[in-house]
Amino acid sequence: ISKYLEVPIEVMKAQYEKCPPGVKLLVKSMVDDVRLARKQLKASKMETEKSPCPQGLVHRLFTELHLVTRHIGQAVPNQPGDFKVSWSSLKLYTTRFFGQSPQRMRSLMDLLSKLKMAELTIAKNDEGEEELRDVVIFNVQAFEDFAEFFQYHLFKGAKAEAIFVDPLALKVATAMAGLTEGLPVDHKGATHIEWSTVLSESKSRYKLDIKNTHLDVLERKGLFVTRKSYDDGRLELILDRTEFVKMVCYWGILFEIDQWNEKGFVDLTPPVEEASSDGVACGQCAGIISSEHKFCPHCGFKLAA
Fold it and tell me: Do 248 and 170 meet the contact criterion of CB atoms below 8 Å apart?
């Protein structure tokens, strides 16, 4: 049996300040040693990681990409924020300066192309084989922003829900971002939308039956929606659409990275909706189900008998 006592940090600081200089120096050296050991352990773990794109390398990969692209790439005329870079130069710089794996970087190009965040130019070499020649990176700033977002949550200490993708949360956030497109923004930067509009449009446009529980899922992930009711019975949702659009982009990237690690390669085949003879969708996640299912095979939701 273990017992522990939680001591406020202010108390520990007060005790530390009262210590003699020699003790302070000893404590500092021990803290520095522990910090160094943690860095070495983390580096060793990343080096022996067998995943195509380990979690600890995600922010590094995108940071290296946007740094090299800005340094050696050429701005695309009439397309602010877009850069064109030679693949051979990109591969050379990321390998020599950052020790990045050429195979991992090449797979990343396919992943970005699938997400329509980059455009690849494929041409035949002298041997008649197809090879990647040039890459156009769209909105390079978004790559820097994503790297900053990921590293912030990765090193927070506790498990950060924001960088672990929930397919249902991604689907609901995508629907909310789409439904609020073009709507006016108030002086606080918030977008308002009628709850009745969300219910009807989400079914017709996204095949998703949005419920209050879905909004709770988003809040657990850090995306907040304020509900405002009126005397006439209307219910309005208020949200920061810019934040929703940004998170949809980030979760889309992370979802594809998860698929990359799971399959061992970047699958460029577009997803195919499962067909169902019943044409019935789960009321929780809108996944296709059949009459034989007692639980949704996609989200585990218990279905009505």
Answer: yes
Return the bridge partners of 121, or none.
134
What is d(CA 170, CA 221) in angstroms, rounded to the nearest whole number?
Answer: 10
Neighbour order of strands in the sheet with 118-124: 74-75, 83-86, 130-137, 118-124
Distance, in Å, from the CA atom of 205 to the CA atom of 196, rounded to the nearest integer, reads 14
Q: Quick: pLDDT tens for 211-262.
A: 888 999 999 898 999 999 999 989 999 999 999 999 999 999 999 999 999 9
* 41's tokens: 């352990």
Q: Inform me whether the pLDDT recorded for 44 exceeds 90.
A: no
Give residue-wise pLDDT tens across range 290-302.
666 666 655 566 6
pTM of model > 0.85: no
Specify whether the CB–CB gap between 239 and 224 falls below 8 A: yes
Rg (CA), the chain: 24
Q: Which of 85, 57, 55, 58 is nearest to 71 (CA)?
A: 85
* 193 beta partners: 237
Residue that the structure tokens 């939308």 belong to: 193
**Which runs of consecutive H residues, i.e. helices, occur in the chain?**
9-18, 21-48, 55-72, 87-98, 102-114, 140-154, 167-179, 195-206, 212-220, 241-263
Could you write out the DSSP letters of every residue in 132-179? EEEEEES-HHHHHHHHHHHHHHHTSSS--GGGS--HHHHHHHHHHHHH
54-57 contact pairs (CB < 8 A, 24+) = 54/261, 55/154, 55/163, 56/154, 57/104
Tokens 């509009």 correspond to 197
Pairing of strands 235-239, 225-229: antiparallel
* 53 pLDDT above the threshold of 90: yes
Position 218 scores a pLDDT of 92
